[in-house]
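QUALITY CONTROL LOG
STEP: pairwise intake check
CHECKER ROLE: data steward
CRITERIA: each record must contain a sequence immediately followed by its structure tokens, with no blank fields

ENTRY 1 OF 2
RESULT FIELD BELOW
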Amino acid sequence: MRISTSMFAALVIGLAGCASTENKTGEAARPQQPVPDKVPAVATVTPRTEVSEANDLSAVRDPNNPLSKRSIYFDFDNYEVKPEYAALLERHGKFLAERQAVRVMVQGHADERGSPEYNLALGQKRAEAVRRALVLHGAKDGQLEAVSFGEEKPDAHGYNEAAWSQNRRADLAYPVK
């Protein structure tokens, strides 16, 4: 490719204009810092910030961590939290106390027996009971929302006690990300 003399001159003039020591405001431009050939290894490590640590939910997604257990089961026609779930709710409450930016939905459920209205009310009472237990263990009230799905989202299908016992529950729904 041949460059004409006039094109070459325009290129040189254009480049010379870019090398000016004044910026658009008329102030002298700061000299650029030389770029090192090698970046120190320390500079390549991205430190975790307090915010990212405070919002880290990997523990609730790790199947080997007790916090991955997020369902609390209830007896028939009852919304009292069983003593066997006290330690689990304590762990979740403390976990949330350390991550106050995290919001959790407590979803109450009921089995299919009873009217839809009754099951919605029972599911709400179960969700509220779990929410209160979490608050007692350090979670902030504003982090938790208690909702009822009644009989609408069964975990197990079947018309027997084995299925019903799996559907009488409250689930802790942590954010997806």
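ENTRY 2 OF 2
RESULT FIELD BELOW
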Amino acid sequence: MLSSAVLGFDARVTGAHRPVWEAGRRALYLLRTGVEAPLSADRLVWPSLFDLDGAPPAPAWTGANALVWDDLEALRGFVAERWPPPVPPHAVVAVTWVSDRGFAEAGATGPYREPTKPAATSPAWTMLGFDVADGSLLSGLMNCGYSTDEVDALRARWAPRLNERHLFGSIEDALAFRKVTDRRVPEHAPFFVYGLYLVG
């Protein structure tokens, strides 16, 4: 049985600040190579406002889970009140943990099922897709390079299942790829499935 829990929120860069990947990076890290600016739970793939030069430092504690805020309004308030104007273009996103094991599989670095505000997803949010990442949100889908020995077979099987953002549209596909990634990148296992939502 599948369960989903909100882990936290972030403000991710858009517009000119959103990096377009050069061809060599796409060839090494992406299965669907036509995607020039992938979206991800991983801030090394899709940077946060807080990764930009000159960003005001985030509070020492924003929540139990790595690099996301557990309070949506606290995040919005910090950006509105503390950012030197003009605030760069950005999208507010929510990250959820989708578990088929009753949230019992967390690793040493998370994810941690702790209270968030809001506590559940909203019908008004836009589902962007599912990522596969470790407990610290490092993406096994887009940030663990594919070797020349494996990449052709993996692309043939998985690239058609990825959307234009390089995220899975199907939770079943994401769960299946999680198992592949646990075997492929054991140094970062266990991996988890994360839903990514556009909040505003």
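INTAKE CHECK: passed for both entries
DESCRIPTIVE NOTE, ENTRY 2: The beta strands are 3-13, 90-99, 126-133, 192-198.
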